[in-house]
Amino acid sequence: MVVFATLRYGFCSSLLLLCSSLILIAKPISSSSTIQALNKTHNFEPEIALFGDAQLVDGGSYLKLTRPSVSSSGLILRREPFRFDDPNLHSPTSFSTEFTFSISPDSGDGIVLVLVPSDFGSKFSGHGSFGLSTQNRFLGVEFDTEMDGNVGDLDANHIGVDVGSFVSVAVGNVSSMNLVLNSGEKLISWIDYDASSKRLEVRLSKFGEPRPYNPIVAYGIDMLAMWRDEPVLVGISSSNGNSFQISSIYSWTFSLRNYPNRMHSLPVDPRGFSHEHGKDLAMHRRRVCPSEILGGLIFATVCGALMAFSVLFLWTVVVNRNTIFPAESSVHPVDFRYEKPSVVVGKDADGVKK
User: Fold this and answer.
1) 10 Å Cβ neighbour count for 278?
2) Which of 9, 172, 201, 272 has its CB surrounded by the most CB atoms within 10 Å?
């Protein structure tokens, strides 16, 4: 019994060790930095810079990007720049951001999340759409509440991806989600860029509701090719044009992550995205990731080891139960007598022996 107990505990320990190794190896290696903006005043000032009409409200619990006056515009910028090609990490940078906002029921430009060169703050004029100029390189995700035929807007309730121009390269119809950007209610958006797949995704929902599984807009873009090792700033901007529209920001988080080059997937097929109304195509080309293959091999090894241990354990138990040991029997010595038969030889009358 001691042998079998030892075998059982050894089996469990080995399985635990293998599973732990699988978790440690399969876990992505990442380097991330995260800031919490617009939470409290003392947490706000060191991290975020305000430009134009942007102002803190209600003791710093949230801010307004625009004022209730014509041609108002405001911008907030994350102070710390980052690079998509970081020489210290030798791997392209991905990012994720999440922010809560509201837009008053007027027909203005709405708000936009922007990536701009590191010197943009000194060049912010506050004029034009979102205070941006097509003379400067930028990437924007706009939450547009005005239909402008000059730039081919879908309607006055859409999300668009802009690359150096206000003519959106990808558009999502917010009305299809039964949402209105300038309803005045709080909305929350998630914007993610994955450097390995070169894919930008935008999601939107009412504040308090879960993050949607499917993005409202998905667009294939190589940020590394666009920015190289140039320092980039991220910010949120708004302008109201000829209206009195007020745009407010209640929370904002931004995080960076970097993956080793060996974990990059194959280049994504740009045909795998739909740039019309923000709907993805039904089929996407499957991306092969070396880490997934390695994880699969390790998982198969664990399963094989588990099967081998199980078979060995069951075989040992069965053999132990069915082994027949020779039974002891009562054996007593028996006396054996040997008697020599007596043979009498006689002669008959003729003299012949009988």
Assistant:
1) 28
2) 172
Q: What is the mean pLDDT of the chain?
A: 74
Dihedral sign for Cα atoms in the order 142, 240, 44, 83? positive
Instruction: Report the b/e string of 223-255 with b at 16+ CB within 10 A.
Output: beeebeeeebbbbbbbbbbebebbbbbbbbbbe
Residue 154: its pLDDT value, please?
78
Q: Which of 205, 245, 281 is nearest to 104 (CA)?
A: 245
| Percent of the chain whose predicted confidence (pLDDT) is above 70 | 62
Single-letter amino acid, residue 301: T
Please give the Cα distance from 172 to 161 (Å, whole number).
9
pLDDT of residue 126: 61
Give the span between the Cα atoms of 126 and 123, in whole angstroms: 9
User: Where does the pLDDT of residue 285 fall: very low under 50, low under 70, confident under 90, or very high at 90 and above?
Assistant: very low
CB 73 within 8 A of CB 114: no
Domain 30-290 annotated CATH 2.60.120.200: yes
Q: Which of 22, 1, 93, 106 is nearest to 300 (CA)?
A: 22
Distance between CA atoms of residues 345 and 338, nearest Å: 22
Contact 145, 242 (CB under 8 A): no
**CA separation for the pair 61, 42 (Å, rounded):** 11
Strand partners, 248: 64, 102
Tokens of 123: 């060049």
Taking residue 306's Cβ as centre, other Cβ atoms within 10 Å add up to 15
Is residue 111 within 8 A of residue 232, CB to CB? The reply is no
pLDDT at 110 over 50: yes
Q: pTM for the complete prediction?
A: 0.62
Is residue 219 classed as helix, strand or coil in its secondary structure?
A: strand
Give the whole-angstrom CA distance, residue 298 versus residue 304: 10
Helix or strand (DSSP H, E) at 2: helix 2-26
Residue 70's region, left for phi above 0, alpha for psi from -120 to 50, else beta, is beta
Q: Kindly report which listed range (52-56, 133-137, 177-181, 235-239) carries the lowest average pLDDT score.
A: 133-137
